[in-house]
């Protein structure tokens, strides 16, 4: 079986997160109405970020490293990327995935950070 492109997979997960928010979480004014789908969308988007980073760091195994490992690796790579990664972690993983934060602005900010990380990794790996 051919190996999947981590950037394409990361983008697919982000697209899935956006679809979940749009079609299932249902936006009313500045909040989503269904916490369950906010959690699913946050998890999907954060997984996309980790897939992109796994591709950057050459991780092939299915097992996940903990946040401290990612933080250290990203800090060694680029300080601005670290800022975006920590924001994505807090917004997508903690606020959305765990807490089910239903604020539209939280999701928008988290997805923006995820896009920036994936785009950065895509540019970095294209130059290798």
Automatic annotation (TrEMBL):
Pfam families: DUF5618
Record-annotated DUF5618 domain positions: 7-123
UniProt cross-references to Gene3D superfamilies, sorted A to Z: Nucleotidyltransferases domain 2
Domain of life: Bacteria
Designated name of the protein: DUF5618 family protein
Species for this entry: Dyadobacter sp. 676
